[in-house]
Amino acid sequence: xxxxxxxxxxxxxxxxxxxxxxxxxxxxxxxxxxxxxxxxxxxxxxxxxxxxxxxxxxxxxxxxxxxxxxxxxxxxxxxxxxxxxxxxxxxxxxxxxxxxxxxxxxxxxxxxxxxxxxxxxxxxxxxxxxxxxxxxxxxxxxxxxxxxxxxxxxxxxxxxxxxxxxxxxxxxxxxxxxxxxxxxxxxxxxxxxxxxxxxxxxxxxxxxxxxxxxxxxxxxxxxxxxxxxxxxxxxxxxxxxxxxxxxxxxxxxxxxxxxxxxxxxxxxxxxxxxxxxxxxxxxxxxxxxxxxxxxxxxxxxxxxxxxxxxxxxxxxxxxxxxxxxxxxxxxxxxxxxxxxxxxxxxxxxxxxxxxxxxxxxxxxxxxxxxxxxxxxxxxxxxxxxxxxxxxxxxxxxxxxxxxxxxxxxxxxxxxxxxxxxxxxxxxxxxxxxxxxxxxxxxxxxxxxx
Length: 449
Ligand code: S3P
What we know:
Blueprint: E1 10-13, E2 19-22, H1 28-40, E3 44-48, H2 54-65, E4 69-74, E5 77-81, E6 95-96, H3 101-112, E7 117-121, H4 124-127, H5 132-140, E8 144-149, E9 153-159, E10 168-170, H6 176-186, E11 192-197, H7 204-211, E12 216-221, E13 227-233, E14 242-244, H8 249-261, E15 266-273, H9 280-287, E16 291-300, E17 303-311, E18 319-320, H10 332-341, E19 343-348, H11 361-371, E20 376-379, E21 382-388, E22 397-398, H12 404-413, E23 421-423, H13 436-442, E24 446-448
Parallel strand pairs: 2-15, 3-14, 6-7, 10-11, 18-19, 22-23
Antiparallel strand pairs: 1-23, 1-24, 3-5, 4-5, 7-9, 8-9, 11-13, 12-13, 15-17, 16-17, 19-21, 20-21
The structure holds shikimate-3-phosphate.
Shikimate-3-phosphate binds at residues 29, 102, 175-177, 180, 202, 329-330, 353.
């Protein structure tokens, strides 16, 4: 299990308006996938704008342990010399994924579909997260689970078959991680592997597989076409390519909400990926009355990106439909913060998947709101936050449970409450947004130890 970082208590002090421009780090989902498809392809993949957060560095280390040669040329600029499908080697050591759910689950798909044996482990957060959702389809594809911790958790050891069995699999939860693990295992299957999802989730794996030369067919699924049927032709030759990583909308969410709730703020967030399967937060904030302008829309690395001009806004409460959850699954903690400032209540429907993130995010958000005097309730899988139409009290200390997004969300809260807000541990912010503190301080945000 990975070395546990010392807890890093942090506090945010309200008052100062946010001003200026920033570029958030590279998208975490795309960064993981660039390392993984680099490993599985032949030739040299060049990556620009890679997120150099702890989660992605763990995936890079795992790719290296499985046989790839990686080189860091400069900030966010990496090369990956791959081994190709079928060319992986048994790692000499345990693959320690730290806090990274995406890296570990996607790499389980890779290992599970290839004739290699590897042991996966992680920190206390990762050790508590369910892996059955990945192991179930992989077992059907021929993966052997040699060892696992109670309840299908890491540490666990997988051995993949010589060739994976192509399957058709309907995911039991709207999860891009499950979909991706099955597709990655299907790369070594002689035939077509199909994943059916009843609600469309982020499509970065499908897009990047195509970029590397795989044949992937995506069709609408279900009565209203909200779902997808994704078919991958197995055993392609993946060819190394260049990957430009756009800025992460899930990281952009923090300065974005901070500017909306802090009076007098105006910021521009540059190069944010506008993939519609990732922009549910922006849709919701616009419905709440947020002043967000999409400027200079352009294509970067196969994705539409835009600069977002954000001004402090008077927000009103809304009802967020459950169908929108996959497009904003990581953004609910910070939406709950925005909702606390809105006039009227905001109801966020269908949040059951939040219970199995880096922490039980539904419980962590509720506890954080309670600690800061913000009225809210959980009804089944729904969270209702009663906004006060201005600054809520604050003054609390929030338990982050090794969860980067809980830490950043409540620090954002404390930039605009009546009293400062503290978090017990901000160390995990380094997993996804290592430059969060200097970035927020450069905008004028008062966050410190
Ligand atoms: C991710 C998928 C989501 C998301 C995670 C990144 C990905 O998880 O929460 O931060 O890159 O595929 P689920 O697939 O479990 O919803």
